[in-house]
Amino acid sequence: MHYFTEHGDTHAEVLAKVRSKYGSGPEVLISQQREVPVKSIWGKITRSTRWEIHGAILEKNKVQPKKKDETIDNKLKLLEEMLNRTSLSKKPAPDAMVDAEDIHPLGERRFGAGSAQAQLTREIQPSLRKEILPISIQPPSTEAIRRLEAEVAELKAQLKSKGGPELDLVKERELLSLYEHLTAMGFSHDFSTSIAMRTRAEIPSTDYKLRKKIHAKAREILGEHVRTTTTASQRIITLVGPTGAGKTTTLVKLAARLSVTQKRRVELITIDNYRIAATEQLKVYARIMDIPCRVCRTPEELAGTIADSSAEFILIDTSGSSPANRDFLNRQKLFFEAIGAQHEIETHLVVPATTRLEDAKLLFDRFELFDYAKVIISKIDESFSFAPIVEMADTWHKPFSLLTNGQDVAKDWLDADRMLIADALLKKWLDETDTSARK
User: Among 401, 44, 35, 53, which residue's Cα sits nearest to residue 229?
Assistant: First the structure.
């Protein structure tokens, strides 16, 4: 746990400083807020006071990957070794089985029948026969083969019960490993099976054990499931999403990009009338960027503000809500209806990277009420994987516009790129130890 103390001339200023430095998530705890006297000489003379906030930051728990079933992997190694021994036993082994009768003629051919070397060869021939003859590879017994077949049947049954693909457990182990990695990242079994089986169909069978070749094709196929687009294609831009998704921080990053980097005239509007701290934080950022920021409490006030604005881009911050709270979502929809008849609205759904598959399904469904056209993945630094969001965006045919991570307004964002997203989800599997090293 990390403790902090911040000061400011007003309560709003110090609160905005805390939110700016440490965020506003549930991991930021404020323990005390008070006015304290200014300790300088001038402060004592004028009896000035400042605001002081004490708090702490809890450690963030990153989402851990699901553990692979190492038991299945170990059994596959044993199966492969047994099959290799079986195949070797069917082939002649001239180096292992040496006919002792050939030793004598060899000595005579190389050194001559009457030579000392040939005499030595004849003397050691009996001992050589005893040492060499036992060296042979025995074929596996019928019982061992039956046990092997039973192991294969058991593993196939386990994979089938988990919804796994129909793959050769030995020859296509790398493809099976790809499938296991995709499910561990958070993709559904159906989606993981589709990627693995299509990869299998589009590479030659000679590459089934080459992880780099499989990765290259799987990366290409996964990239085809990712759609991307640009931001700021309309004058009015708004962000919607669940509570704590990072909408306000993301909106400020967009505003900084447009106003500071591109020198465009930007105005911020918030219709979030529930979180006073978030509104104050937005106003502080607006002052820093020297752009106007207004609070609209009713749909009519929002429509009037937009009609009077001369800004090139208007960015609207909304209240976060649980997707289960349909009444709240319907009330917020009224703000969109108030301006939708006269203006095109570019709506982004902000989804935190920590969202699980079932929760992502609900978010994509319920927020469709706002007719969002683009998706932003936020907080990618807090999650092991954002695979469920990628699968849901593919299902709903929605493109990604932005990826964000952290609180740095100038740096912590990336334009969405389909191959970058595919790389982020598959690189860890490529970096794992390959088959030969595991054996």
Answer: 401
Find the radius of gyration of the CA atoms of the chain: 34
Residue 198: inside a domain: no
Look up the CATH number of the domain holding residue 308: 3.40.50.300
Instruction: Identify the three-state secondary structure at position 239.
Output: strand
pTM, full prediction: 0.66
Q: 427 in a domain, yes or no?
A: no
Domain count, the chain: 2
Tell me, what amino acid is at 81? E
Residue with tokens 């505003």: 255
Cα angle: 218, vertex 222, 224; to 5 degrees = 125
Q: Would you say residue 90 lies in a domain? A: no
Q: How would you label 151-179 residue by residue, b for 16+ Cβ within 10 Å and e otherwise?
A: bbeebeeebeeeebbebebbebbbbbbbb
Q: Which domain holds residue 46?
A: 2-57
- 109-142 pLDDT tens trace: 444 555 554 554 455 455 544 444 444 556 667 7
Rounded CA gap, 48 and 40, in Å? 9
